[in-house]
Every structure is written in C-alpha cells, then in structure tokens.
C-alpha cells in the first residue's frame, strides 16, 4: 500500500501537462466568482497554472512549485513563491481569498486555512472534494485503492468550514454538480466519458493515481478497457452518458467574516 499525507505530491516532477488537462470549467468558475462577491482584490492560494482566477479583478497568486508557475499564461496574475501556512501578507490585505482543489496538498491544512482567513477582509472561497462522498463515483468499482487514497488526503469538509467561518457566520457548503462536458479534468469530470481514463495523459493530471500501485492501475485500466469493449460498462452505467450533471464529491465552501 502507498501511504499518503497532505502535501505529498512533487509537482516539480509530476506537474507537466496540468495547464492542458485541467482547464477551468466556465460553469464551476461562475460559482466561484459569484462567491467572491464584490471583492476587487483577490488572493489565489495554491494557484497552480491559474485555473479559476477571475480576470475582472486584481488577483495575486501564491504557488510554491516553479513548474506550475511556469505553466501560467503570460496574461495571468503575478505569482509569489510562498505557501499557505505562511502567507507573506498583513492581516486583512485582500477583499477575498480563494483556494481551488489545493488544500489537500498543504502540509498543515488547518494552519493554511487559518492563514487564508487572516489575510481576507471578506470571503474565503475553497473548492475541494468531500472524502465521504468519493465512492458515489463508479470508478470506485474499478480502482478502490484510488478512492481510499483520496479519502485519506482530503481534509474533512466540517474542518474546512469551521476554520474559514466566523463565530457569527457559519460557512456555506455547496454541492457542486459536475457538467457532462466538464473541461476540468479531475476524475469525476469524466463520469460520462469513461474512455478518457484509458489515456495516460489524463491520469497523469490527476494526482490521485500517484498513490495507486502500478499493478493496481494496470489492473483497473485493463478491466475498464475490457468492460467498454464488451458493453458491460454501458450495461451498468450507460445512463450516465446522457445525464447532464453528476453530483459527486465536489464542494464549494464559502466562509464570510
């Protein structure tokens, strides 16, 4: 078994291709940007290649991986080499702070989230996955090792909500439906397109596969390939090919001061 812990992916060696495979989905982006309210200054922490950063506000990014920073487009916001747990900014420096699909990568998520709350005058917006809902996805039937690894990695939704909220304003937790043609290539984005998992480039842009033993990955991919060829996958899950949305584990958490 491959052990996991928060902050356990080396994007200097595995981060190539994220900008191409993990393109922000406009519908998910709209939810994030709406949650930022009327904020004019936004800090994006764990910004990666710049997914989901609004273009109509002043944005500053924080990203510790040089390889990920190098994939940011020329028009993207400037990126600071720093980590969530030790943000180099004064208290209340930004109107809002966002963190999208990154908290599970932080060595100390609670400390990092508290740092986000410290530098935000307004909302803290976190896009993440609910470990308790990961097995809603059919991929659990093919590679349960991946689901188990992810469940260990993601901080509890209740913990995130507690840290980014205020005593008088509990955080809002929203189940985010994944559209059938989602352009952001996380695992549940392909709930209706199972063939995509046969492409190693797709799996390479999903960090969870790095915590599955190669033999288990090979077994899962070959089982899926066989079931697609025989029609067995469609017998069990074919209804998903026309289902407009899938409500799985994707969550948007909004904490307001």
From TrEMBL:
InterPro entries cross-referenced by the UniProt entry: Methyltransf_11, SAM-dependent_MTases_sf
Pfam families: Methyltransf_11 (PF08241)
Domain of life: Bacteria
Region of interest called Disordered, as start-end residue ranges on this chain: 1-20
Domain Methyltransferase type: 43-121
Record Gene3D superfamilies: Vaccinia Virus protein VP39
Protein name, UniProt field: Methyltransferase type 11 domain-containing protein
The organism of origin for this protein: Paractinoplanes deccanensis
């Amino acid at each position: 078994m491959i052990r996991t812990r928060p902050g356990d992916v080396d994007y200097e060696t595995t981060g190539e291709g994220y900008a191409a495979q993990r393109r922000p989905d406009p519908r998910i982006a709209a939810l994030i940007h709406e949650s930022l309210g009327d904020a004019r200054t936004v800090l994006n922490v764990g910004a990666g290649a710049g997914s989901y950063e609004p273009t109509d506000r002043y944005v500053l990014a924080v990203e510790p991986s040089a390889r990920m920073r190098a994939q940011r487009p020329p028009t993207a916001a400037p990126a600071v080499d720093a980590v969530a747990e030790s943000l180099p900014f004064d208290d209340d420096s930004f109107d809002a702070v966002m963190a999208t699909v990154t908290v599970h990568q932080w060595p100390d998520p609670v400390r990092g989230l508290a740092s986000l709350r410290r530098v935000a005058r307004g909302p803290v917006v976190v896009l993440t996955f609910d470990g308790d809902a990961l097995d809603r996805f059919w991929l659990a039937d093919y590679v349960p090792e991946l689901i188990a690894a992810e469940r260990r990695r993601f901080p509890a939704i209740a913990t995130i909500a507690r840290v980014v909220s205020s005593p008088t304003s509990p955080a809002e937790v929203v189940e985010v439906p994944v559209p059938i043609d989602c352009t952001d290539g996380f695992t549940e984005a392909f709930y209706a397109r199972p063939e995509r998992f046969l492409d190693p480039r797709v799996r390479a842009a999903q960090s969870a596969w790095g915590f599955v033993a190669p033999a288990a990955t090979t077994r899962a991919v070959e089982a899926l390939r066989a079931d697609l060829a025989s029609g067995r996958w469609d017998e069990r899950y074919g209804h998903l090919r026309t289902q407009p949305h899938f409500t799985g584990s994707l969550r948007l958490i909004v904490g307001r001061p």
